[in-house]
Every structure is written in C-alpha cells, then in structure tokens.
Amino acid sequence: MTTTATARCDSVVGGGTASSEATSVAVMRCADGVARVTALPDGRRRICVEPNVGFALARRTWDTSYPLALIREIHSAKGLYLCDEIMREEDTSYVEHYLRHEVISYVDAADFAGKRVLDFGCGSGASTMVLARILPSCEIVGIELDERLLRTARLRAEHFGRRDVRFLRSPRADAFPDSLGRFDFVMFNAVFEHLLPQERCRLLPLVWRHLNVGGTLFLNQTPHRYAPIETHTTGLPLINYLPDRLALRMARRLSRRVKRDDDWETLLRAGIRGATVREILGILATCGSPSLLQPKGSVGDRIDLWYRKLSRRNAWLKRSIWLSLKTLKVISGVELTPELALAIRKQG
User: CA 271 to CA 273: how far, in whole Å?
Assistant: First the structure.
C-alpha cells in the first residue's frame, strides 16, 4: 500500500456541515480504494473510506481521537478495514461490550488484579487495549505472528501510555516466544475460528500448558460450527451443513464476501467453520482436566448470556431465537448458541 496526502478540501469529509473554510485532508490509497482523514474542530479526525466497486465493506466512516501517524499505521496494516479496526478499540458497544459480557459474566473483574493475562492472537492490539481498560491492574501480554500487526499494537500501547502491556511475536503458528511464562487467564478473542483444523489440535494443548492450575481459558466471539446461518465469513444460510467441497462452490457463487478464486484454506482461515464445545473440550481433554464453567448465577446459562449481549434491533426476532434455543435445551438437554462464549478452568 502507498500513502499520499493532499493539502486542502472545501468541506467536512464523510458527512456533517459544510464549511466555507478549507480543511486539511490526508488521503491514503491502496489497491481496494481510498481512505480520507479530515481534521475536525474538536481535535478529532473523521475517517471516510471509499472502496472500489465490488469491495464489500460494512464500516466506512468513523470519528476518532487517534493521531494521524497511528491512523496511517493502521491503514498500512489493515487497508480499507481502517474504520473497523479503530472502532474495535474506541467504540464501547463493539469489542468492549462483548468482553464485559463474556468475561466478567464468568469471573469478577476484581479477580484479575495482580494476575498475568495472555491475549492470544492479539492482532493490532484492539482487544488488548480494551482488556487493559476494563480490568484492574494486571500484567497483560499479547502475542501475534504478524510483525506488521504487532507494530500497530505497540504504537497503540504507546499512544495510551500503557506500560503494563507487552506485545511479543510468536516464532511460528505452533510455537510461543521463549520465556513466555505461565498465566492465570488466557483470552481467545475472536481467534479460534481462524485456526486451521490441524492448528487447533496443536495450539490448544500448547496454550493449556502455559495456564496455571486453577486458571481460566476464555474463548469467545467464535461462531458455532452448526449455526443455521454462517454469518462470519459468507452470510449464507445452511452452508454449515454442506460438505466442504460443496460449501466452497456455494460460497464462491452466492456470497458477495467471497472471491471466485478463493480456495478452501482461504475460507477456513477467514473463519467459515466456527467451532463446537465438544471439539474444544475434546482437544483439551487430551492434555489435562478441563472444567466448563457456567455464567454467574445472576446471568443464567450460556443461552441467556448470548441473548443479553445482543442489541435491541429486531428484538422480536432475537427473542424468538432465544425462546427456541431455551426450548431445545429443555427438550434435548443441548445448550446451543449461535456464538461460543466459553470459560474453561484448568483443574489439574
């Protein structure tokens, strides 16, 4: 990607009231389109992303407090997903909302004080910064394979002055940095679905060995492998029930999010297959004694936990799904949720 700049613009970019005074604008280009960053009177910056025709993008505008240098770095690493990446940290209804529900609903925030927390697959550091914000004083270590993402994560920590957060690079997908040590809590935030099947079988036991006895592994924001609608990667209904080869053909033909030349490994890496509770506990059982925790009493079960984190948009539909899932549990004993939000304690 290349970054260029223009000097002036005659109106506020991305909406708002037009101004008679010229406004400085930074323009960042990549193969998929253009991002424009406009300085606002309150010191923030408005980002407006303009994708090329055919490039699917959900989040195109955002007003941020990030400095321009950090915005440029995120653009370099994330391209036109610039707004989404910044919103992951700044928008309290995004990652913070999920973590508050899916972590604090199992373990009180006070229990993290003075402990070591591993943010596995931390990416550009958005989830790590959120954890540092919502948890009491503790040591947080983020690990990631991609050095570009780590550079962004470190700049984020520097921007916020977070000296209690460290970022380390994993030497390989199936190995951890030397002298990583052991942890009281491990976070898999929206990560597990992106691991290939063989990576899941290698990495979970590796993570488990770095977790102290009595410690807790949190695995959340991962789609259920057999949800009726595959919302994460393709947006298609029933594709979760198709064999791999047919699922690939349908995804290429019917999903606007999938390119015609994408192969199956690309879609697996994108997260098309999700996970199940049985799969995760089965892997962990080969190397220890995992205990699946239930949400604290005031929350209910994992179905209630999933329902409580939802927005009020289309509330009638979401409540209908919740009621169907609760009925299924009563009839069959199966506790099914569209997304996994699990806490697993290491017994020994």
Answer: 6
Is the sign of the CA dihedral 170, 172, 175, 177 positive or negative?
Answer: negative
Residues in contact with 274: Cβ distance below 8 Å, sequence separation at least 6, in sequence order: 193, 222, 223, 224, 225, 226, 227, 230, 232, 240, 340
Q: Which two tokens stand for residue 201?
A: 């079988």
292: left (phi over 0), alpha (psi -120 to 50) or beta: beta
Structural element, H or E, at residue 81 = none
Those residues whose C-beta lies under 8 Å from the C-beta of residue 330, and which sit 6 or more positions away, are none
Q: How far from 232 is each of 142, 221, 224, 273, CA to CA, in Å? A: 24, 10, 10, 9
Q: Which residues, listed in sequence order, are joined to residue 38 by a DSSP beta bridge?
A: 25, 46
d(CA 49, CA 85): 13
**Distance, CA of 280 to CA of 341 (rounded, Å):** 12
pLDDT tens digits, residue range 226-266? Answer: 999 999 999 999 999 999 999 999 999 999 889 999 999 99
Q: Which residues contact 53 (CB under 8 A, 6 or more apart)?
A: none
Closest by CA to 102, choosing from 345, 344, 342, 346, is 342
Task: Give yes or no for a contact between 138 and 113, defined as CB atoms under 8 angstroms apart.
Answer: yes
Q: What is the pTM of this model?
A: 0.88
Whole-angstrom distance, CA of residue 243 vs CA of residue 224: 16
Q: Is the pLDDT of residue 13 over 90?
A: no
The CATH superfamily holding the domain 95-223+274-346 is Vaccinia Virus protein VP39 (3.40.50.150)
How far, in Å, CA of 136 to CA of 343, rounded? 19
